Amino acid sequence: MDNYEAQIKLELQFWELELMKKPSLLGNLATKVQTKINSYIPAKVHKAITAAIKQMVKAVLFGSTYTTSAMPDEEMSLLHREALVKSKVDSFSKTGAAEGGITGAGGFLMSMADFPILIGIKIKMLFEIAALYGFDVKDYRERLYILHIFQLAFSSKVGTQNVYKQMQNWDQKLIVLPESADQFDWQTFQQEYRDYIDLAKMAQLLPVVGAAVGAVANYQLIQKLGKTAMMAYRVRVVSR
C-alpha cells in the first residue's frame, strides 16, 4: 500500500463516521425548512420535476447520450486518476454555476428549465468520474451505482444512511443484480429518489429568491456530488 492509498483509507474512515452519525437538531431543522419550501411549489411544477427525474433515470440506464472519455490505462496511479477527477469536478461546477446564473436571472420559467439541464450536467460528470476510476458505464449495473450516488449526495440524513448500506459491498452484489433493467422495480426507486433529490435547489423556483440562488446553488450542489462520487468510488477501489 502506498502513502496516498493509506491517506485515502483514513479519509474514508472519517467520512463514513460522519455519514453514519445520528441526525443533529440543526439537520432536522434544515429538513423541515426544505420540506416547507417544497410545499410552496405549485403542483404542476412538482409534476414537471418528477417527469424530468423519470427522463434522467431512463437516460442513465438506457441512453447513449452520455458518452464518456476513454478509460485511462490500468497502470495509471490512483493519485493521477484523482487529480483528473478533481479537475473534472471543478470544470463541471463552473459550467453549472454559469448555467444557474443565467437561468436564475431569467425568472420562474427559466428556473424551471434549469432543473433538467442541471441533472444532465451532473449525469455527464458522474459518467466521466466512473470512467476515470476504471468502471465501465456500458454495464447498466454501474449506471445503477451512479443513481445511488445521486441519492447518497442529496438525501436526508436517514435516507443517506440507508442508501449507503445498499451500496456497501457493491462489487459482490454485481453478480446477483438483475442483468436487465426491466427486472428491477424502477417505479419505487424513482418515487424514493423524487422525495429527496435537490430539495434545496427547488428554492430557485421561488420568486425573488430564485435569482440569488442560481449560480451559487449549482456550484455547491455539483461540488457536493463530485466529492460524494469520489468517496463512493474510493470505497470500491481500495477494497479491490
UniProtKB/TrEMBL annotation:
Domain of life: Bacteria
Alphabetized InterPro entries for the sequence: EcsC
The name this protein goes by in its record: EcsC family protein
